[in-house]
From TrEMBL:
InterPro entries recorded: CBR-like, Cbr1-like_FAD-bd_dom, FNR_nucleotide-bd, OxRdtase_FAD/NAD-bd, Riboflavin_synthase-like_b-brl
Cofactor: FAD
Predominant cellular place of this UniProt entry's protein: mitochondrion
Subcellular locations according to the entry: Mitochondrion outer membrane
Protein name (database record): cytochrome-b5 reductase
UniProt entry tagged with the keyword Membrane: yes
Keywords, comma-separated and alphabetical: FAD, Flavoprotein, Membrane, Mitochondrion, Mitochondrion outer membrane, Oxidoreductase
Membrane topology recorded in Swiss-Prot or TrEMBL: Single-pass membrane protein
Amino acid sequence: MTTQPVTALDSADFRDFSLKEVIRYNHNTAKVRVPSSRRQRDLCKGGGDDNEGKPVVRPYTPVSAPHTPGELALVIKRYPDGTDIHTLFHRNLIRHIMTQHSLAQPNETTKFKLIFGNVTPADILIREELDEMASKSNGRFEVRYIISRPDETWTGAKGRIDAKVIKSYLPGPELGSRVMVFVCGPPGQVAAVSGPKDGLAQGELGGALKDLGYVKEQVYYKF
């Protein structure tokens, strides 16, 4: 007989949590922590009322490891035209959790390369965590930051994620099934890199990845 671990969240109902801590990442993003005596699920919903009393619901992806007891952590980004419960910038964080889990497995040999594009250096989320993961990965995880509007202090890569950047940094399509590419970001960036999504469907492969010779089976997910 096997039993499933009790989780902190219930997909069929809302649960109340007390706010434990708010940690500012940058000018528009913060990490919120709530105490929990149970394990978490991979995705939860947060809700509340707006200024007019209307319900607002958003999906949230926990950034604390799923097996971590005692804490549930979320990263929330404020948008100028957003509602009172701000849309979670969760796309990059899903990838962060996946990488974190794989790197923790002693017999795993999968390598990860992340190209992280942002407008300014201040927009880079979880940079300290990513740099720490890279330093402890024994070469299995590498991250390259690229900034489209750098200031005078920025010494890293400049510009946008395009075919030239991808070709210089990622494994090539000739590796076949041994390479998998995940693409996430705002719709315009996703379209330029891998072709637009078709509603909730993935859509056809296009953009820079198609130009470089990657095939649909190698671009595992656009989100």
